[in-house]
Each structure stands twice: as structure tokens, then as C-alpha cells.
Give the backbone structure.
Amino acid sequence: MQRLLLAVLVGAFALAGISSGLLPAGAATGPVNVAIVTNLGTIEVALDPVHAPVTVKNFLRNVDRKFYDGGTFFRAVPKFVIQGGNKAREKDSDPTIVLETPLRTGLRNTDGEISMARRSDPDSATSEFFISDGDQPELDGSMTQPGYAAFGHVIKNMDLVRRIARLPAPGQMLTEPVTILRIRRIP
């Protein structure tokens, strides 16, 4: 009986996610892969719409409207993160999204994880993102600190992430930002 109740609850939550717009009808039940094409090479990332539906929906909306085209990876800290976005178009960005905390989603800021950047307000993420260069448990948050929304992970070319993280970056800002030529879904 408990198994039947659990199955009904899981089904109800899945339907609620679809009907609320968090997961579009026919949404992927597995990863959605994207290619981040830069002037130094391509990084492939698997996004997790099941565990971080709001964050993935926001990121893919930006991908699909080609928001990131011509953007940059502008911040780099070895053994921490590389951060990217499109500062020239930030004012055009969609409104902020509600933080899907790692404690809630189960997605941690581990080596190669992609997460949303934000200001001090937990619900201030818009379009900037970062990729972890090494495990960053301090970014997962706690009961008193909200953390940063992880929503996928690098599946190909993590060596390029490490290379970018080690480029000259006085004060964490890359001397020569790495151009994001485009980000596209991989069919």
C-alpha cells in the first residue's frame, strides 16, 4: 500500500510540474545537452531539467533566443570557477528566477557542474552562469545560506574549462575574455 501511495504522489508531482509550466508537456525526462562554442573550443554540458526545472528552463530560453551569442567567459579563478554570460545584453535579460537550492534539488557544485551566478539576493539569478573547476561544497549552501543553483554538468572537454580557469586573470577578471561564439542544444 505504501508503494502505491508513493507512486501516486510521484505521479502527481510530475503532473504538477508539467501543468505548472516548470516542465513543458513532453519535457525531457533525462538530460538536455548543449554545446558552449568558444573561440578556444567547445564544452558540452548535460542539463538536468528533472531536478532543476526552473533553472534549466531559464537557461534554455536564453540559449534558444541566442542571448549568449557573442558573450564571454570573463571571470576565472583556478580550482574554483569560470563565469560567463553576455554583459552587453544583460539589460535585455529576463526577470530573475527563484533559486533552486542544491539542498532541495540534490545537485551539488561538484567538479564540472554548471550553476547560475547571482547577486547577494538568493532569487537574483538571470543569465550569468559558472562552471566549477573542482568540487565547491561551500557553494551548495546550508540551512542558513542558500547556495547557488546547480543545473547540469560538463560531459565533454573539461580540460578546456581548466585551461580557461588558468588564463591570466588579475583580480579574477580575465585579461582577454574568452568569447562565447554561441550556445546551442545538441539534438
Helices lie at 2-19, 53-64, 102-105, 158-165. The chain has four helices and eight strands. Confidence is low (pLDDT under 50) at residues 1-26.
